[in-house]
């Protein structure tokens, strides 16, 4: 009995040590694996850029990434010019907004992308908790606008538009018309809210949520 007990204790100790090492290394390993996957994915997306580069640039490792980063900065500088911004808005409204299927896809993606832009304070006005589904169940969403009284279910109550992204793919979601009194505004950023939604609640913001 003593031998079996010693073997059991030894097994438990070894198991504990192994699990401690495993769960210590697992976050770092998964992080590196995810970064490697994202890097390779970006490289595959930029393969056409690499193919169009002159031979003199290809000698630089990952030159296509640096080229795209430089192009993004150039576009950012150009977009600082009012005339160019006005031209882009005109193209969106006069061309993209007139093509039925493309209109929904483009402006839907643009709204979600703008939600991650810290300089944009218009698209998603507030992060809110709203009643959703069964009684006592709530969803994390974004207050996008206030409903025109002529479109509201009840003209005597102020309603708001709320977009509730789905998990883990926030490019789709639900559009809700909710009484403003049912919305609880949260003191977190849109980026933090997206992190919560995409992770299914696993990752939580460090910001204190307003009471």
Please write out the topology.
Blueprint: H1 2-45, H2 47-52, H3 55-58, H4 63-79, H5 82-94, H6 100-115, E1 126-131, E2 138-146, E3 159-165, E4 173-179, E5 184-186, H7 190-198
Antiparallel strand pairs: 1-2, 1-5, 2-3, 3-4
- Percent of residues in helices comes to 40-55%
Number of helical elements: 7
Per DSSP, what share of the residues sits in E-state strands of 2 or more residues? Answer: 15-25%
Strand ordering within the main sheet = 4-3-2-1-5
Low-confidence stretches: none
The main β sheet shows up as: 5 strands, antiparallel
| Secondary-structure element string | HHHHHHEEEEEH
The gyration radius over C-alpha positions equals 25 Å
Count every beta strand, where a strand is a DSSP E run of 2 or more residues: 5
Indicate the structural class.
Answer: alpha+beta
Outline type: flat
* Distance linking N and C termini: 59 Å
Round the mean pLDDT to the nearest integer and report it.
82
Q: Report the oligomer.
A: single chain
Structure description:
- The protein is α+β, with helices and mostly antiparallel strands.
- The chain has a domain at 126-198.
- The chain contains 7 helices and 5 strands.
- The longest helix has 44 residues, at 2-45.
- The radius of gyration is 25 Å and the shape is flat.
- It starts with a helix and ends in a 13-residue tail after the last helix.
- The model has no long low-confidence stretch (mean pLDDT 82).
């Amino acid at each position: 009995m003593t031998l079996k007990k010693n073997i059991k204790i030894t097994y438990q100790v070894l198991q504990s040590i192994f699990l401690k090492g495993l769960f210590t290394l697992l976050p770092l390993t998964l992080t590196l694996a995810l970064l490697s996957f994202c890097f390779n994915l970006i490289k595959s997306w930029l393969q056409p850029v690499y193919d169009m580069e002159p031979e003199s640039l290809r000698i630089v490792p990952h030159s296509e990434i640096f080229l795209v980063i430089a192009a993004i900065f150039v576009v950012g500088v150009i977009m600082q010019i009012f005339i160019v911004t006005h031209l882009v808005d005109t193209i969106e409204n006069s061309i993209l907004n007139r093509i039925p299927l493309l209109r929904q896809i483009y402006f839907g993606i643009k709204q979600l992308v703008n939600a991650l832009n810290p300089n944009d304070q218009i698209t998603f006005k507030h992060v809110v908790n709203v009643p959703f589904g069964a009684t006592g169940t709530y969803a994390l969403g974004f207050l996008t606008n206030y409903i025109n009284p002529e479109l509201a279910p009840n003209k005597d109550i102020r309603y708001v538009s709320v977009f509730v992204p789905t998990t883990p793919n926030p490019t789709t979601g639900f559009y809700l018309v909710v009484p403003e009194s049912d919305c609880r505004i949260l003191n977190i950023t849109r980026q933090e809210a997206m992190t919560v939604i995409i992770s299914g609640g696993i990752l939580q913001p460090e910001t204190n949520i307003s009471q």
